[in-house]
Amino acid sequence: MVDHKNIFLLVVFCIFSSASAIQLFYYLFFYLLVYIRKQSDLKGILPPVSIIICARNEAENLKNFLPSVLEQDYPEFEVIVVNDCSEDNSYEVLGKYLTKYPHLKISTIHKDPKFTHNKKFAQFIGIKAAKSEILIFTDADCQPVSDKWLVGMASHFDEKISFVLGYGGYRKKKGLLNKYIRYDCMTIAMQYLGMAMRGIPYMGVGRNLAYRKSVFFRNKGFGSHNHVISGDDDLLVNSLATRDNTKVEFRKETHTRSVPCADFKEWMTQKKRHLTTAPFYKFRDKFLLITEPATRIMFYVAFIVLISHLFLWQWVLGVFLLRFICQTTVLSLVQKKLNEPELIFYLLFFDIFSPVINSIIFLSNIRSKSGNNKWK
Question: Which end of the chain, N or C, is less packed with Cβ atoms under 10 Å?
């Protein structure tokens, strides 16, 4: 007589083992590379660069963070702030800095009720105003952690390189939400940095990103994604970055730190906006990005089913511990490399929570198309 229960559990065990193997592949092939890869020495000859910052109602952030951008230790650079329809005192703040920093330029977009636009238009205005071939992007609420940020990002450019992907983390604050925001940012970074180093660059973050002006215009701006509200950073990289024209930069002195969301609702709105670009990625990248969280969910569900029935429980626990030790080790090393302390203690909870909440947000976006009307 056929034992259907044991056959079912054996199938679940096979799924569990396969999901574990795929998970280990991601951690050891992609993510670990962020720790073990050594960065090349900084070059002595540095090209002129233009830093572009788009700002809408960011007076307080400009006041607090813009000086650290303007005071970079770099031979020749300009900073272009696109003041986009601000209704606070951004212009007064920028006006004070104009007298002190001659390399600061301001491009102002005035509000027009007959013309609404998104951040891509503001970025296009900044790019048009830039006099340098090398463009470096960050946000008004971002602060470079040192005056060597610009040197680290620009030093990778030569005749072959068109894109440099940097790390943009969030400021450390109290509370579980802040820890999760930083964990989410770190795990996304170890994914896009690790994949880029393996020759599969699929995204960058506008908080810390550099590319050539000529590449932007050869692509006719944001190209086929001009109609997409978001994606001024990741979709451009996804379309044009290749194994041969992309470098990564993640030395601690070249990080930027941004102001994190203050509450869960604000973070959900931001996350929904970020995930609106995912359907426009290349099929290869979508497959790789979906496979990891999908197998993670399969891993935990299968584990619960097998343990609850005590089916091959010694093997199940052994596989679980193997993945957990590998995961903990890799994340501990990457955490140190990206200077994101105290996150490893929340690993198990965040590891389960992350694919669940991202799936909910993604499905919500498909259903409601929400998040598409935000400038930033």
Answer: N
Q: Are residues 241 and 92 in the same domain?
A: yes
Query: 52: which 2 tokens?
Result: 């572009």
> What DSSP assignment string belongs to 224-258?
GGTT-SS-TTHHHHHHH--TTTEEEE--GGG-EEE
Q: Which of 280, 313, 332 is the last residue of a domain?
A: 280
Note whether residue 373 is domain-resident: no
Distance from C-alpha of 41 to C-alpha of 156, rounded to nearest angstrom: 9
β 163-166/246-249 pair status: parallel
Q: How far is CA 354 from the centre of its chain?
A: 15
More confident residue, 32 or 110: 32
Cα→Cα distances 164→135, 172, 330, Å: 10, 25, 24
Looking at the 3D structure of the chain, how many domains does it have?
2
CB atoms within 10 A of CB 36: 9
**Collapsing DSSP states into helix, strand and coil, what is residue 196?**
helix
Q: What is the CATH number of the domain that holds 46?
A: 3.90.550.10
Residue 143: its H or E element: strand 142-144
Could you tell me which residues are beta bridge partners of residue 109?
84
- Taking the chain, what is the end-to-end CA distance rounded to the nearest angstrom? 62
Element (H, E) at 108: strand 104-109
In a domain, 237, yes or no: yes
pTM: 0.92
Give Cα 357 distance to the centre of its chain.
17
Q: Is 194 in contact with 34 (CB distance < 8 Å)?
A: yes
Instruction: For residues 276 and 290, state if they share a domain.
Output: no
pLDDT of residue 370: 47
What is the helix (H) or strand (E) element at residue 128, kind and residue range? helix 119-129
Q: pLDDT band at 141, cuts 50/70/90?
A: very high
The per-residue pLDDT for 376 is: 63
Domain membership of residue 245 as a residue range: 42-280
235-244 per-position pLDDT tens digit: 999 999 999 9
Query: How is 65-100 classified by DSSP, letter by letter?
Result: HHHHHHT---SSEEEEEEEES--SSHHHHHHHHHHH
Q: What integer is the mean pLDDT of 328-333?
A: 96
